[in-house]
Design goal:
Layout lengths: L1 E4 L4 H12 L5 E4 L10 H6 L7 E4 L2 E4 L1 H11 L10 H31 L7 H22 L12 H10 L13 H11 L2 H7 L1
Parallel strand pairs: 1-2
Antiparallel strand pairs: 1-3, 3-4
Helix pairs in contact: 1-3, 1-6, 1-8, 4-5, 4-6, 5-7
């Protein structure tokens, strides 16, 4: 397998985390977003959406990081990271979608309007709104994790991998997890995993 991605992208790191968890042999192919390599004809032929990451598994090409997590969970079923019954899979999907639709975009707005964009293009109101959305999402995560060790219950799954890639940027963006003790404890457990350390350190 080949994974095309930008080394500092949370979406790319989400898939790298998964690849390390299942010990999947892979080649990482850097795509430098700062040089526009995601907009080259060669890359767009693989991923017409022009984003990272993109996984190539022989003749199968797949993009969107959460879809790749689901594929790899099915590809390596012995690790039982994708859920085995319909309700388990649905519960996992709930967290994947929460991350993709709410948590991830909020973090992306904070990053863009505090670090990535030049000062004159930053919009403080977007950061304020994004931080409010994060607080809402963190409240949901805290509620779940105050009752279960992992997002989908008693077992570590791709739901945890997906969300952990997003929360990993919290220190860089001055996002404080301490008001959410169960979430903060979960975040520390994630950081202790060897696959996490290979990916994020």
């Amino acid at each position: 397998m080949k994974l095309y991605g930008f080394p500092f992208s949370p979406n790319t790191r989400r898939v790298l985390f998964m690849l390390h968890e299942v010990n999947a042999p892979h080649e990482f192919v850097p795509v430098d977003l700062t040089r526009g390599e995601h907009r080259t004809p060669e890359y767009l032929a693989l991923n017409p959406n022009g984003r990272v990451p993109c996984l190539v598994d022989q003749d199968f090409i797949l993009w969107e990081s959460n879809a790749i997590l689901q594929y790899l969970a099915d590809r390596f079923p012995e690790y039982r990271l994708g859920g085995e019954r319909p309700r388990e899979r649905a519960d996992i999907a709930c967290w994947l979608f929460l991350n993709a639709a709410h948590l991830g975009p909020a973090v992306a707005h904070i990053f863009a309007h505090t670090i990535r964009l030049p000062e004159e293009k930053r919009i403080p109101a977007l950061v304020e709104n994004a931080r409010a959305e994060l607080a809402r999402c963190f409240g949901v995560l805290e509620g779940k994790l105050s009752h279960t060790p992992w997002l989908a219950g008693t077992s570590f799954t791709i739901a945890d991998i997906s969300v952990a890639a997003t929360t990993s940027v919290a220190p860089m963006l001055n996002i404080d997890l301490s008001p959410y003790p169960s979430l903060a404890a979960w975040d520390r457990r994630m950081a202790d995993r060897p696959a996490y350390q290979k990916t994020f350190r």
